[in-house]
Amino acid sequence: MATKHILIVPGDGIGQEVTAVGKKVLDKIAAKFGHTFTYDEALIGHVAIEATGNPLPDESLEKMRKSDAVLFGAVGHPKYDNDPSAKVRPEQGLLKMRKELGLYANLRPIKLFDELLGASSIKPEILKGADILFFRELTGDIYFGEKGRKNDGDTAYDIAEYSRYEVERIARKAFEAARTRRKKLCSVDKANVIETSRLWREVIQKIAPEYPDVEVEHQFVDATAMLLIKDPRRFDVVVTANLFGDILTDEASQIAGSMGMLASASVGDGTGVYEPIHGSAHDITGKGVANPLASILSAALLLDISFGMKAESEAVINAVDQVLKAGFRTRDIADQQTPADKILGTEAMGAEVMKHL
Ligand SMILES: NC(=O)c1ccc[n+]([C@@H]2O[C@H](COP(=O)([O-])OP(=O)(O)OC[C@H]3O[C@@H](n4cnc5c(N)ncnc54)[C@H](O)[C@@H]3O)[C@@H](O)[C@H]2O)c1
Ligand SMILES: CC(C)[C@H](C(=O)O)[C@@H](O)C(=O)O
Ligand SMILES: [Mg+2]
Asked: Which family is this protein grouped under (predicted)?
């Protein structure tokens, strides 16, 4: 029986819709297992800019620091996507949150529910049994280096930077995780070209002997992009830099069937933030069709990682599994065989999951 304070940060677009469902699941878990979860909400992204002019107001950051965990939705708005000159942008709020909270490790499990074998565009016989855990470094790289324009704005630059320390701390987390799984670690870089990648590889090679039980493989990111689709089962734990991890995990979402299935945990020095890997998806915002399972599975990660509530977390994953077994789908994971009455909207899918909790 525990008392925990959870901050709900829905952000923009479908972030609002899916996070509402994630929160309901947390509520149900608290009731079922006799915990007391208290909640507050905070602004981030476009909604925060509209309300305060700031994509991450100090008040939001303060609330995050004081919470036991954060359930986050997404940020982003087409207004900024199509205006490269906008100086204040929703994504700045997300990056600031990650930096300020020291969330250097982003865990992105690529878990394929067997029932969704047919939802992917990859052949079932290639996919069956795929189970990958990505460790994406989250507070360094080209995202956070100096950037700007020169030559009267005609030339732009973004500097990618990594310190030995930054590489080592994410690498150690990945090695430790590999030890609890199939003991394979694939480190992804572009060391044939990029200096930060050469440092990355050097650090992994240096600490690898401390984990003799873990088999280490180094891959170039272009090859990884290909191998993920060709033979996803060859991967166990993957560790990579911020930008490569962002791109490879969107690609890997197709192994799980949809962006709407992929949850993540951003952890590091302080409060953990749990978030779907998808964005604000304005193409479907307000239509009530967004898949809430990524948010629900993010809530499961929150229970497990921040609260150490293994049984509670498994109850959520099991409920999702049951709902998929019963044949229910949101539009993004439905296929030609899915009967129309099994295709549910965001809230109805959440309600089905709740029935199994
Ligand atoms: N973590 C974040 O907050 C985050 C992540 C990615 C993109 N973004 C932002 O989101 C905005 C839109 O970006 P984008 O279109 O490239 O990426 P996106 O992830 O929002 O959408 C990509 C595609 O996947 C679909 N999709 C995503 N989540 C879904 C769900 N839960 N259910 C069903 N379908 C889903 C969308 O409809 C869209 O077709 C941009 O402003 C971008 O900066 C934010
Ligand atoms: C919105 C953007 C800044 C973000 C990123 O690139 O990290 C997103 O794509 C993600 O994967 O969380
Ligand atoms: Mg991304």
From this structure: Belongs to the isocitrate and isopropylmalate dehydrogenases family. LeuB type 1 subfamily.
